Amino acid sequence: MLENEYHLDSMVCFAIYSASNAVAKAHKVALEPWELTYTQYIALLEISTVTEGLTVGDLGKRMSLDSGTLSPVLRRLDERGLVRRARTSPDERVVTASLTETGTSVLKEVLVALKVLRGAYGFDSAEQARALVKELHRITEGMRALA
């Protein structure tokens, strides 16, 4: 029989996995009224941080997604009128994504609605949230270094 350290409840990897699944499910339910996936939501959110738009390459780096995964997400958002994709560079391969007015409006609605999820994280302060984010980034970097 294996030692206690191998029980799921004591494993860091399983705790992160379980938390990730729970967060994803809660966001899925919260995003349903706008028919957005979590990936579409974070793409809209990240594009909104830059007024002149982001290249697909830069957006992919920020979201840790390759262009094969990100391009269909942006295509769907473009088809819905939430994002505008354009080739603004002399290099025809470079596509820039920017929010439309509709995309900005929808994102504002979504952000208001997602405030309800904040309480479920159970933080007593913004500092606790920042500390967890910092630790999760550290773990992410450590795991990426192994790959």
Strand order of the largest sheet: 1-3-2
Biggest beta sheet attributes = 3 strands, antiparallel
Q: Please give the share of residues in helix.
A: 55-70%
In whole angstroms, the N-to-C terminal distance is 31 Å
Q: State the shape.
A: globular
Helix count?
Answer: 6
Going by helix content, strand content and strand pairing, the class is: mainly alpha
The number of strands is 3
Radius of gyration: 18 Å
What is the CATH H-level superfamily? Winged helix-like DNA-binding domain superfamily/Winged helix DNA-binding domain
CATH architect. name = Orthogonal Bundle
Low-confidence stretches: none
Text of the CATH class? Mainly Alpha
Tell me the count of domains: 1
Mean pLDDT: 91
How are helices and strands ordered from N to C? Answer: HHEHHEEHH
Strand content: 5-15%
What is the gist of this entry?
The chain is mainly alpha-helical.
What does this structure look like?
It is a single chain. This protein has 147 residues and is mainly alpha-helical. It has a single domain, classed as Arc Repressor Mutant, subunit A, CATH 1.10.10. The protein contains six helices and three strands; from the N terminus they run ααβααββαα. It has helices at residues 12-31, 38-47, 56-63, 67-79, 101-118, 126-146, and strands at 54-55, 83-86, 96-99. Strands 1-3-2 form a three-stranded antiparallel beta sheet. The longest helix is centred in the last third of the chain and has 21 residues, at 126-146.
